[in-house]
């Protein structure tokens, strides 16, 4: 073995001897740093979300009431008409002739009745004289009453003729938007011809939406002390994603439960605005259309006070939702919770936490049950917005927070957390 090789081996051994005590003297890592928030009460507006459909308050199928030629269509297809506007005009001369004939018949019978009344008066006067005969009086009385009955029948027949004449002018029974005509001028129409056009009312509109019976009972209990249905308003999210400009109100709840779906139907009334820049009657002028699908937001009128924490603090497993609470000894403890209505950024806790407790919201993946952590203030949470879920208050809480929720934690010394507790 060469002298140089021995020297190198000796130097390496000496370096190991010197560095070994230094490696043993390196301090162990401290407790993991986590960001914590204090459980506080917040004022939020509760909102339940459902899928609904717009429905016209009134919908009328226009049909002919008499048989006649269609002479005139007096409306623009797709336009809005007012109640009482002329829609169709049918051939009138035959019906006018019948009215004139019935009027003449009534006049003839009235003339005969006048003469019969005079004859009856004479016979009644003669009964007081020796020339009077009871038989003649009775005949005049019967004749007068018969003519009076004939006049009543003729007047009724005249009224029917006048009604049929009126049916030759088909008027709008309600105000609204009218569809395209199914029959054009020159065709014969009758009560068996079917629908000539459909008239759909435009303002206000109904919004119909089914909800689960359980959700309906929860809404009833929640707002019973605040005025019932008067304590909620209806907001709509249009298919474009925009929130409709005006609110509606609930006015009806179905008295029965659908057996196949276990749902009840709610109905709201909401104004149908005219789109800015358009005029009534123009195509697409109204914001809401009969049959349109919308998202219904059932929102409380008055805010409620709830316990709120960041959504990132909530974890889930097979047993449900839970959070890590930091106790007085800075140890992380698992706490099972029950969530109410929640959003992607804010979780509303209905049970399991108390106001003032510290919950880990950042660095959750570094916490272990019973182990000491180094708590510090978490990043400021985003402002709380009205919570919204579909169907009921428990649906949005089903998914847990992601495992990397605490990647943005700002660790601080343990003393800082103790001072704030």
Task: Please tag this protein with its features.
alpha+beta, disordered C terminus, conserved putative lor/sdh protein from methanococcus maripaludis s2 fold, 5 helices, 4 domains, 24 strands, 25% helix, 421 residues, nine-stranded mixed sheet, OB fold (Dihydrolipoamide Acetyltransferase, E2P), seven-stranded mixed sheet, elongated, Elongation Factor Tu (Ef-tu), domain 3
Explained architecture:
By secondary structure, the protein is α+β, with helices and mostly antiparallel strands. The chain folds into four domains: 129 residues, conserved putative lor/sdh protein from methanococcus maripaludis s2 fold; 105 residues, Elongation Factor Tu (Ef-tu), domain 3, CATH 2.40.30; 61 residues, RNA polymerase II/Efflux pump adaptor protein, barrel-sandwich hybrid domain (OB fold (Dihydrolipoamide Acetyltransferase, E2P), Beta Barrel); 74 residues, Helix Hairpins (Orthogonal Bundle), CATH 1.10.287. It is 25% helix and 31% strand. The strands form four sheets. Strands 1, 2, 17, 18, 19, 20, 21, 22 and 23 form a nine-stranded mixed sheet that branches. Strands 3, 12, 13, 14, 15, 16 and 24 form a seven-stranded mixed sheet that branches. β19 and β20 form a beta hairpin. It is elongated.
């Amino acid at each position: 073995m060469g002298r140089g090789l021995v020297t190198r081996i000796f130097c390496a051994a000496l370096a190991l001897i010197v560095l070994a005590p230094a490696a043993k003297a390196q301090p162990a890592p401290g407790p993991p740093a986590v960001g914590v928030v204090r459980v506080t009460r917040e004022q939020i507006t509760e909102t339940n979300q459902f899928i609904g459909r717009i429905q016209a308050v009134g919908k009328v199928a226009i049909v002919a009431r008499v048989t006649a030629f269609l002479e005139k269509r007096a409306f623009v297809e797709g336009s809005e008409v007012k109640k009482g506007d002329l829609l169709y005009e049918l051939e009138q001369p035959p019906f006018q002739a019948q009215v004139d004939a019935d009027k003449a018949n009534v006049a003839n019978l009235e003339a005969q009745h006048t003469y019969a009344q005079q004859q009856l008066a004479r016979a009644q006067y003669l009964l007081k004289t020796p020339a009077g005969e009871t038989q003649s009086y009775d005949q005049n009385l019967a004749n007068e009453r018969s003519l009076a009955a004939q006049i009543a029948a003729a007047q009724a027949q005249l009224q029917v003729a006048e009604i049929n004449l009126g049916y030759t002018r088909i008027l709008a029974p309600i105000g609204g938007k009218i569809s395209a005509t199914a029959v054009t001028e020159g065709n014969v129409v009758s009560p068996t011809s079917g629908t000539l056009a459909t008239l759909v009312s435009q303002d206000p509109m109904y919004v119909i939406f089914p909800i689960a019976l359980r959700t309906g009972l929860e809404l009833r209990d929640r707002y019973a002390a605040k005025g019932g249905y008067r304590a909620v308003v209806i907001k709509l999210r249009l298919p474009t994603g925009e929130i409709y400009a005006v609110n509606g109100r609930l006015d009806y709840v179905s008295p029965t439960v659908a057996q196949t779906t276990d749902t009840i139907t709610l109905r709201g009334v909401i104004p149908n605005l005219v789109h800015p820049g358009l005029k009534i009657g123009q195509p697409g002028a109204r914001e809401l259309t009969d049959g349109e699908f919308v998202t219904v937001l059932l929102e409380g009128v008055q805010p409620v006070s709830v316990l709120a924490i960041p959504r990132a603090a909530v974890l889930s497993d097979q047993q449900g939702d839970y959070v890590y609470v930091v106790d007085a000894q800075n140890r992380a403890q698992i706490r099972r919770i029950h969530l109410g209505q929640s959003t992607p950024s804010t979780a509303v806790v209905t049970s399991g936490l108390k106001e003032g407790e510290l919950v880990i919201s950042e660095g959750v993946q570094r916490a272990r049950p019973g182990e000491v952590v180094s708590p510090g203030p978490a990043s400021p949470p985003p402002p709380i917005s009205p919570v919204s879920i579909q169907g009921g208050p428990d649906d949005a809480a089903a998914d847990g927070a992601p495992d990397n929720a605490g990647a943005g934690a700002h660790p601080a010394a343990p003393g800082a957390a103790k001072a704030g507790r």
